[in-house]
Amino acid sequence: MFSDHPHYPDAPLFAAEVEGRLSRGWALRRVLIGAAGVTGGLIAVAQITGAGLVGRIEDANRLARDTAAALHTTASQIPGPIGGVGQLALPFGGEVLWLVAGLAVLAGAFLASRAIQEI
Predict the structure, then answer these.
(1) Measured between alpha carbons, how far is 34 from 32 in angstroms, rounded to an integer?
(2) Local confidence pLDDT in tens for the 119 residues of the chain
(3) CA 4 to chain centre
(4) 16, 101, 108, 119: which has the fewest Cβ within 10 Å?
(5) Do residues 86 and 72 lie in contact, with contact meaning Cβ atoms separated by under 8 Å?
(6) How far is CA 10 from CA 1, 16, 17, 57, in A?
């Protein structure tokens, strides 16, 4: 008796109105979230260019290249079995090492988030 809900004659109309409101609300949320993302992206680009970050990265890259060249020169002058290390041609560069380090940090973050969820 009490487990069955009474059916009202305007139930389909009510359901259509509720679905219309929900779909309108989701569309508005998507537009607002997209606009906030674009605005945040533009602010981030303005901050990066205003801070001269690109120039700093270029300076750091130039310094890293100079250091690598000096290390290569020094390693090639070492006699013995270590001397060939400076002339060793590896199939990857320093970018790959940074990529692996970044992936290791990302894996650590995933592991930490998983551990926090288990607690």
Answers:
(1) 5
(2) 567 777 788 888 888 888 887 777 677 788 899 999 999 999 998 888 888 877 888 888 899 889 888 887 877 776 655 445 444 555 666 677 788 899 999 999 999 998 888 77
(3) 51
(4) 119
(5) yes
(6) 22, 10, 11, 65
